[in-house]
């Protein structure tokens, strides 16, 4: 079974987290027929081998990126323009996706990148409350309710074939929480923080090239092929 087939099987059986705080809704695009076809096209194209990947761990999918397309950090625009996968989604952009694909191209393009790296998130599913994106750590009761789910889903993904070093996309609350989980459950040997793409695009746009360079410098040693 290829890496891509393992991922596809994972998403086909992905369950919803339970006992969430009142008002918290889950983004679950994987039940949609178009998303299933997009996942099949993407993971067959870029993950049709058995090589191990270095995990890049985001927070949780947003409603305009992975929460819509099913592909982490990939909005409908990048899905078509960068990956060549047509789609009928509303062509809204996600700031994180803009950053990520500029970085991917700086490393050498999607084929080289996805042969060596795998995007996931602390929670594989995103959340909204009152129509707005919600991070898993924004509500303490949500973070607490999700812990067992997060660890279980991460272990399932590690079984695809993961390198011992991982990266956190987020240098604040995300890396703090991942390191806490890692100390408790020994998921990775080392987790290296990187600035969150949205933070760069929203607050440090004038230094975009600098931050893309930081990503490239830190990720390039993980490229084996």
Automatic annotation (TrEMBL):
Domain Uracil-DNA glycosylase-like intervals: 46-220
InterPro entries: Phe_SMUG2-like (IPR032579), Uracil-DNA_glycosylase-like (IPR005122), Uracil-DNA_glycosylase-like_sf (IPR036895)
Domain of life: Bacteria
Official protein name in the record: Uracil-DNA glycosylase-like domain-containing protein
Species of the source: Fulvivirga imtechensis AK7
């Amino acid at each position: 079974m290829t890496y891509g087939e393992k991922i596809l099987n994972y998403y086909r059986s992905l369950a919803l987290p339970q006992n969430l705080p009142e008002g918290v809704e889950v983004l679950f695009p994987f039940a949609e027929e178009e998303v299933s076809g997009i996942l099949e096209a993407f993971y067959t194209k870029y993950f049709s081998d058995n090589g191990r990947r270095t995990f890049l761990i985001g927070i949780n999918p947003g409603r305009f990126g992975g929460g819509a397309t099913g592909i982490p950090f990939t909005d409908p625009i990048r899905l078509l323009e960068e990956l060549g996968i047509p789609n009928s989604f509303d062509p809204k952009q996600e700031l994180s996706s803009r950053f990520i694909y500029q970085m991917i191209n700086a490393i050498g393009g999607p084929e080289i990148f996805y042969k060596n790296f795998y995007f996931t998130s602390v929670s594989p599913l995103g959340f909204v409350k009152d129509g707005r994106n919600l991070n898993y750590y924004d509500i303490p009761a949500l973070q607490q309710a999700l812990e067992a789910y997060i660890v279980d889903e991460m272990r399932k993904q590690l079984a695809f074939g993961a390198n011992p070093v991982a990266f956190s996309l987020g240098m604040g609350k995300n890396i703090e929480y991942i390191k806490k989980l890692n100390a408790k459950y020994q998921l990775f040997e080392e987790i290296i923080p990187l600035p969150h793409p949205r933070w760069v695009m929203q607050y440090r746009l004038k230094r975009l090239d600098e931050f893309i360079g930081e990503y490239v410098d830190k990720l390039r040693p993980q490229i084996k092929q």
